[in-house]
Amino acid sequence: MTIDPVALTADLIRCPSVTPEEGGALVLLQTLLEEAGFTCTRVDRNGTANLYARWGAKGHARSFGFNGHTDVVPVGDAAAWSADPFGAEIRDGVMFGRGATDMKSGVAAFAAAAVDFVKDTPPNGAIVLAITGDEEGDATDGTVALLDWMERQGERMSVCLVGEPTCPSEMGEMMKIGRRGSLSAWFTVTGKQGHAAYPHRALNPMPAMARLMDRLASHELDTGTDHFDASTLAVVTIDTGNTATNVIPAQSRGTVNIRFNDTHTGTALSNWLREEAGKLDAEFGTRTEVAIKISGESFLTPPGPLSDLVAAAVEAETGRRPELSTSGGTSDARFVKDHCPVVEFGLVGKTMHQVDENVPVAQIESLKAIYTRILRDYFAR
Fold this sequence. Notes:
The chain has 381 residues and is an alpha+beta fold. It is built from nine helices and 19 strands. Strand 1 (39-42) and strand 2 form a beta hairpin. The two termini are 27 Å apart.
């Protein structure tokens, strides 16, 4: 009896696994996988639930890995939904529910493909499923914890496919071979509070902040590379908290976010931001504190055997040859790339994180077929 990926998606959606809650999703998957002969280990860390499942010998030279997550973002205003966010209702061939697209359908598709494959065609090698409950949260104790544990235990993936939604509008049109890096920086410019009628007795941080934000936003970081678009810097907030019109504030705060390609590193960009803040202070006499968080470095899996394998399977099942892209935000592939070559392919992501998130059930079935073909072709080599 084959595993129905649509029914499995519905079962996972009915698990209210709003990050960081496990919600029963990993328990359900562990039961399914152990019944199929997978060796399963819970790799929980700091209250975050993670599941590692392997079929085949530990340390096998050929090991195909899947990575994904079962945690989901909050539903928002539940009254705005036309269906129960955790009901997995199907209307006109479309399933509704939080996680329908991002990414319980992807997890269901690769779990179903893996289970059926090892039953029907036991491969000469291993299949690994690394599933986290911490992708939508801080992502510090999810895939990172799994990879740390794998390193200690001598567990390996030769290659890995992350099942995130990758297609903008049509099934099969895009896969990811890399991602831009992401960095956020918080600036606090301190001057001296004073009366607005006597500005010479104060040191207004506002002109300094405006100048800094303009300089950063106007600076061209690069013009793009062979596989990446140009890096971008966005000013996302400037705030003083001052409601009085006759007071010059003592402080102003501003935040920027940078999405960067392989021209840069997080460290180099951090140094540049701090240098610009130092120039500002020398010019205005202010004091600027800078706090920086690097969410991930840019990375690229160069086109080659892994991307060819996935692209060929996608084209065979959908009739479309997927574009090799590095667009979009971050994913857990940014952690996996330090372990083994990694690419991403999954469903159309138009409704992820939205009210009435949904997925056509035909796409779930198609995705399982693609993942099954990838496994077959990988182990037939």
